[in-house]
Amino acid sequence: MIYLFSVLSVVMPVFFIERRQRVDDGQTLFLKCLSTFLMLFLAVIKAYTYKSELLYFLMTAGALSLCLLGDFFLGYCHVIGKENRLYNPLRFSGMLVFLLAHVVFIVNYLLHTENFIWYLVIVPFAITAIFFVLSPYLGFKWSHKAFIVISALYLITISFMLITGIFYAVQLVSSGATARGAMIIAASILFFISDSILAFMYFAGKKSKAISIANLTTYFASLILLALVS
Questions:
Q1: What gap in Å lies between CA 109 and CA 88, rounded to an integer?
Q2: Which of 22, 122, 133, 211 is the most buried (most CB within 10 A)?
Q3: Which of the four pLDDT bands, split at 50, 70 and 90, describes residue 125?
Q4: Contact indicator for 229, 59 with CB cutoff of 8 Å
């Protein structure tokens, strides 16, 4: 069963990415949400089959559920034609839900990490500071101060998820769980890349087909890996 859903979890996003330019916004929303739902169901099947630790599974499933909800909110903006409105509640709701998903992943990693080095929290703030120094040269344009605040919070959060995920994965590798640790490292990096690409798409006007495919590919790849280690 797990092999079947692993294959489906790969095939469905590939089908979605290939078809999204050829179908309407409603069908795009359905296909993307279905793809994310398969990741969630894959996590359930994997946890049941291999008797995963309950707390880790529940938090992973919760975070994946939030990703599914975020996909719906952001996708529905396109369906109703309000994706470009500055104060669109659906758009902000989608961003908030994804932010909460990252927070759940962070808490999950910290709960399963021994002796986390807390001065590493400096790293996300340093990454954010460097980003805002370079942002004018990267083509970022902030239409409202609210987006600066939201982007800063988001970048700090995804950077912290990257740090905590790698820290937890290194401990797994050192304890002999090499494959699981490597998958968490890869998932953390891919999720960070996906969100970084999304920032370029929303705030730097980089919306080419290639960039969109890169964003979706890294996003779904990260979700598959996170589901498989649940």
A1: 32
A2: 211
A3: very high
A4: no
DSSP state of 137: G
The two tokens of residue 66 are: 């939030």
Look at the block and give the residue holding tokens 């605040």. Answer: 149
What is the spatial distance between Cα 44 and Cα 51, in angstroms, rounded to a whole number? 10
Contacts of 11 (CB under 8 A, 6+ apart): none
Residue 200 clears pLDDT 80, i.e. is over it: no
* H-type alpha helices, the chain: 2-19, 25-50, 54-79, 89-111, 122-134, 145-174, 178-203, 209-228
Residue 102: closest CA among 222, 205, 229 = 222
d(C-alpha 196, C-alpha 159), whole Å: 10
Task: Report, as an integer, the average pLDDT of 164-180.
Answer: 95
Query: How many CB atoms are located within 10 Å of the residue 126 CB?
Result: 11
In whole numbers, what is the pLDDT of the chain averaged over residues? Answer: 84
Report, as an integer, the average pLDDT of 147-155: 83
Distance CA(70)–CA(67), nearest Å, equals 5
CA atoms within 13 A on the CB side of 64: 29
Is the pLDDT reported for residue 68 higher than 90?
A: yes
Percent of the chain past pLDDT 90, that is, above it, reads 47
